[in-house]
Amino acid sequence: MNELVIDTEFITLGQALKMTDAISSGGMSKWFLHENDVYVNGEIDQRRGRKLRHGDVVNIPGCGRFVIVNKNGEI
Questions:
Q1: Which one-letter DSSP state was computed for residue 16?
Q2: Which keywords fit this entry according to its UniProt record (predicted)?
Q3: Which tens digit of pLDDT belongs to each residue from 11-59?
Q4: By the 8 A CB rule, do 1 and 66 touch?
């Protein structure tokens, strides 16, 4: 499982898609989530504004599984 390192309290699912190169621009997130099953903590989620925090696991088809890690150690 890969790590997505953040330096803020949270990122959105749309931002995570862009950080993992699943999409090339933020505007594609709505389309991508409509066409693909993306799992957050084991459940399908289509909300591009879903807040992802330290410890959340995101499974993106064709890209892999990622755990959100806050580099400041904040939870």
A1: H
A2: RNA-binding
A3: 999 999 999 999 998 889 999 999 999 999 999 999 999 999 999 999 9
A4: yes
CATH number at residue 39: 3.10.290.10
- pLDDT at site 65: 96
Count of beta carbons in the 10 Å neighbourhood of residue 38: 23
Structural domain including 62 reads 2-70
Put simply, whether the predicted model's pTM sits higher than 0.85 gets the answer: yes
Rounded CA-CA distance 75/71 in Å is 10
- Inside any domain, residue 75: no
Strand residue runs (E) in the chain: 2-6, 10-12, 39-40, 43-44, 51-53, 57-60, 64-70
User: What is the pLDDT, as a whole number, of residue 73?
Assistant: 64
pLDDT band (50, 70, 90) for residue 72:
confident
